[in-house]
Automatic annotation (TrEMBL):
InterPro entries: MATE_fam (IPR002528), MATE_MdtK (IPR050222), MdtK-like (IPR048279). Keywords: Antiport, Cell membrane, Ion transport, Membrane, Transmembrane, Transmembrane helix, Transport. It comes from Undibacterium danionis. The lineage of its organism: Bacteria, Pseudomonadati, Pseudomonadota, Betaproteobacteria, Burkholderiales. It is found in: Cell inner membrane. It is a multi-pass membrane protein. This is Multidrug-efflux transporter. The keyword Membrane applies.
Amino acid sequence: MKTQIRTEVAQLWQIAWPVLIGQLATVGMSVADVAMTGHLSAQDLAAVALGASLWSIILVTVMGVMISVNAVVAHEVGASAFNKIPHIMRQAMWMGLGVGLVACLVLNLSTGVFDYLQLEPFVQAKATEFVRVISIGMPAFAMYRALYSYTTSLNHTKPVMVIALLGLAFNIVVNWLFIYGKWGFPQLGSTGCAIATGVGMWLMLGAMIWWTHRAQAYKQTFPFTHKEAPKWSEIRSMLRIGLPIGVTYFVEVSAFCAVGLLVARFGVVAISANQIALNFSSLAFMIPMSLGIALTTRVSQTLGERDVVRARFISWTGVGVSLVFAVFSATLMTLFRHQVAAAYTSDPAVQAVAANLLLLAAIFQLSDAAQVTLSCALRGYKITRIPMLIHIMAFYGFALPIGGILGLAPSWFPWHPAQPMEAAGFWIGLVLGLTVAAILLAIFLHRLSGTKIAYDVHPAS
């Protein structure tokens, strides 16, 4: 058994580590945007922060929808049905184009929310322009994620890493040129960030197409040999898997955004401390998320082979590895929370609050790592609707209501603390909500993976 576990952990990590570096490079783009505009003006920084909040919500939703391609393609890889993959991928690219265009439209329409935030006219105009310019990258991003899932399903994740790193380098260089107006380029400030990211998405798509065309690993399944019209029945089957994942991602991101907005009433110290804790825990989250992507691939491939016993073993091994990492990261976060807070800010008041929130974030690591890998294992079974409902209940039924009661201490509610717990109350709510999600997902995976009937009868529940 120990040998089997070591072998499976090695296989998971072989897929996951390039994905991890790619994810960190993607996060690095937003870090570069904030850091570089912050050195230009507070107004441009505010515009990027506001615009990026809308962009990130739509971005992760699109990412969730396109994950369905991973489960479908990896299943055919496991079944050795390589002849089916080119057709699936041509339809997946049509789906990506459609999803990207819808996301582009929604993103532009969502700028109307700025009218209700009582912003400075200059900041509102710059934030709106940021969103409209960056939206041009949405169709490319959705199609890129289709190819991302394709190459991951074939166990080739190094292209993801290399292209993401090149994308980060491109983003930094073009930011420098357009934000500050270097080498004769116009000084565009926050709009320069949007240009860099939007154009960068199209270049990343082009790079991925070029890579799949040139590399020998894709010769057997290369999808771009001829044109093919979209077929709604096949696109719909992928959307049936992907849309619940997109909703799940939207629910989680919107819940964190809601906490950020609710914490804002407690002042700059609370806002800053909340952002520090969220940013640092998000970086730590990249490892279980990357393991989860690898887990979806491994479970899908194994179910394609019709080996349900091994799929169960792989699922729980992946969850166990993620929890081991979570314990390690939670321990480090607990021991060095004051140093982490000090690395973000020199303000003593913000440091103190952030250190307390990082203690809660340490607990948060366990439930968050568990729920993401459990969800990803279920995606390998093509089960997405029930996890979606679990996440909706966990965040909207537990995390936000409990966080609101503890954080705001509303007088109308019979059981509330004597004083508002402010940001800490909301983080306790998030911990409890994620714990509920992890427990329910674990129960569901245990029951599902223990039966051979579930996968065959409910392939997209």
